[in-house]
Amino acid sequence: MSPETVRDFVHFEIDEEVRAIGGQYTLTKEVRLPFYGREVLYITGYAVFDTSCCGSGGCGYAIVPGFIQEWKIFRDRNNRHVSRVEPIADPQIQKELRNLIQNLEMVQEVRFE
Description:
The chain is mostly beta strands. Helices cover 12% and strands 58% of the residues. It has one domain (3-112). The protein has one helix at 91-104; strands at 7-10, 18-20, 23-35, 38-52, 55-75, 81-86, 109-112. Strands 1, 2, 3, 4, 5, 6 and 7 form a seven-stranded mixed β-sheet that branches. Strand 4 (38-52) and strand 5 form a beta hairpin. The two termini are 17 Å apart.
């Protein structure tokens, strides 16, 4: 791991609905998942598209910021916690994590940041 691969991750409110022109989304939980001697941070959520001109629908998803390097080390100017994470770029690790998260959670999509 090199210093340039570590980045700040700003934690958002859990269970707070965010409305947009086509619907809304809600982040439902943050998870610290043990994975081969390290911890992976992922966030689950769902989106509902119910005010779109193209129809309605929804999906469950997970966002994976990366491996946790430092947990909630400071707060930003909006008083949100900030952690340091190492993004996961390796396709094989992504595939394994995607399968694991989809087996643990009711999500259709897993996105790596």
